[in-house]
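Project standup — Tuesday

K.O.: blocked on the structure for the chain from last sprint. Re-posting the sequence here as requested.
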Amino acid sequence: MTKILLVEDHEELWDFLSRRLRRRGFEVVLAHDGQQGVDVARGERPDVILLDMNLPVMDGWTVARTLRGQGDTARIPIIALTAHAMSGDRSKVIEAGCDDYHPKPVDFSRLLGQIDAALAARQEQG
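H.V.: unblocked you, prediction finished:
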């Protein structure tokens, strides 16, 4: 079963996403702040990380850089979830270490496609 780490501090969104992802057959683990996201990623080794960029304790930008800088988490695909949908934001999250970008509000069908693409790319890398 594919394991997804959802790092999100808004209860409504983590509840909505985790329930829908579980119905699609994913195992979902949750973290509610950036530091917890780093810790859970190290301990759980998820297949994909959905990362809110505006988090308490440690922001998503720092989380992405931290995970990319460590051998055990460096290759886990990260999809940024952010309400910042300004031009240039996609390139900023990619530079921070994310593999993809999904603006909020979440389009669940599109997000599923991005998760599938991230998993396929990871398999191709070996």
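K.O.: great, moving the ticket to review. Helices lie at 11-23, 34-44, 60-68, 89-96, 108-125. The chain has a mean pLDDT of 93.
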